[in-house]
Amino acid sequence: MTPQPDNWTLRRRVVTLLAVVSVLLGALVAAEIAVAAQNREHTHAVLDRTGPLRDQSQELLSVLVDQETAIRGYTLTGDQRELEPYTQGSAREQELYRSMGGLLGAYPALVPRLDAVKAEAAQWRATVAEPVIRTTAEDGTAAGRALITEESRQRFEVIRASLTGLQQGILDEREKGAAAIYRTSTLLVVLLIVAALVVVVAGGVLLVSLDRIVVRPLTRLAEEVREVAAGDYQHRITGSGPPELEQLAGDVDAMRQKIAKELAEVREARESIEWVNGQLQRQAEELTRSNRDLEQFAYVASHDLQEPLRKVASFCQLLQRRYAGRLDERADQYIAFAVDGAQRMQRLINDLLAFSRIGRLTSGFTEVDLNRVMGDVAGQTESARQYADAELTWGELPVIRGEEPLLTNLLANLVSNSVKFRRPDVPPRVHVSARLVGDEWEVSCRDNGIGIEPEFADKIFVIFQRLHSKDAYPGTGIGLAIAKKIVEYHGGRVWVDTDTTEGTTIRFTLPALPEDVEAARAAAEAAAAAEPGDGTEPAGDGESTGDGVNGAEPPRQAGPRAEEGADAAPDSDSAGDVKETVA
């Protein structure tokens, strides 16, 4: 069943209208081409046939008159030169006959008239001109003039009359051609006007159709969409017009239903979130109260618990000193256990207090020179390094923003761990370096100690997590946990480099100053812009390599206070193999 026009799609309507207009315009164009061809043919006939025929007929009349005049002149003077117009005119006359005969092929009715002129001219030449010329040449001018009678003049008038009739026929044909040109030109104009009217009517029909089947339905659809956008999400959107617009309205309504459903879910989720936020706020208040309790506990632990521990430790030490050797060996061992336990408890409480205070008791971030920090670390770890015959070196270190006491504690913990976890009979070697990676400084602490197995790389940063017994390596097991908390407090991260083949390498990152990042980027761009072969090597993505900031600074060494100058030389000798500090 053929669909009704009201159910036609917009595409089908437009294609049908364009097809009708194309057929009409094609027919008009074909008609215009045919009329234009006729107009061209008539114009060619007027310009290229009747016009030259008219000119040649006038010339033919002039040539014949010249011949008749030459005969009269010759009879008067008898001079042969008077016959030159006659001779030349006869030759030109034949040329005109041939030319006019070719042009008159398109006008068969005029050919007999030209033949009549040609025959009459030939008869006049045979009966009048030639006898007059011959008689004048033989008998004299008087005899020649005697042959020019009224009858001879009448014969020439017959030629003139025939030629006039030919010219009139040519003029009639020319007027017919002009009329045909006017008629075809008028028809061309009419066809052009009809084509313009077809285009205008088609445009009007298209405009009205678009307004009725597209613009109005779209306007109604837009009004309904605006109602939904204004907040009436339950308003059902209906469409009208072509099937495409109805389908569009259905899609928009489906989207409205989906949005309404999701909005309902969002409202439910918002209510749930508000309830959760209320719970979180209550929990935050509880956490605040808990933190205050913990701070109070920390205060009690730092003051009230320390005092009994100090008293227990002091009296145990008094017992140890006074009664050492007086009691049996088992009693001395018990007293030593009590002293060691009290001291370890004090160390454990102090470490817990230090761990809890990180990030809570803050003095604010300042610009910290890690080279100066390493000098302080070298001083703090001097005795341990002297005991272990350890060597501490570091490359050129950057300036960062942070808390200097915490950074000092961080590096001191790492250096102390490197010295503590050393291999037997191998002097410890600890080296600290830094390199710029992106917008962060990556600081490395490398040693030649016992190393860490990859499966324990994450456990060492957990509080109280020990990999060895306290008899083998003393300590509370909280040092690296403190280091991790300090690094994270400064916005970095810490990890163990498991690719190290010997010893242990602990790396951590700290945010770099913007000017350091810009300087590294400018250096990388300058290296990239350098011509090949000029000795410049790219630094690569703004990252410094080597043991220092720029890889060119020789490592600094640590030992007992080289800044004291020559007065420190005796102390250096007493320190064994431990190197001097360059701070």
How would you explain this protein's 3D organization?
The chain is α+β, with helices and mostly antiparallel strands. The strands form 2 sheets. A 6-stranded mixed β-sheet has the order 6-7-5-4-2-8. It has 13 helices and 8 strands. A hairpin with an 8-residue loop joins strand 6 and strand 7. Helix 1 packs across helix 4, helix 3 runs antiparallel to helix 5 and helix 8 crosses helix 10. The C terminus is likely disordered. It starts with 9 loop residues before the first helix and ends in a 9-residue tail after the last helix.
Our Rg estimate from Cα atoms comes to 62 Å
Beta percentage is 5-15%
Q: Biggest sheet, strands in spatial order? A: 6-7-5-4-2-8
Taken from the alpha-carbon principal axes, the silhouette is elongated
Percent range for helical residues?
A: 55-70%
List the helices and strands and how they pair.
Layout: H1 10-77, H2 84-103, H3 111-139, H4 141-147, H5 150-229, H6 243-323, H7 329-357, E1 366-369, H8 370-380, H9 382-388, E2 391-394, E3 399-402, H10 404-420, E4 429-437, E5 440-447, H11 479-489, E6 494-496, E7 505-511, H12 514-529, E8 556-558, H13 569-574
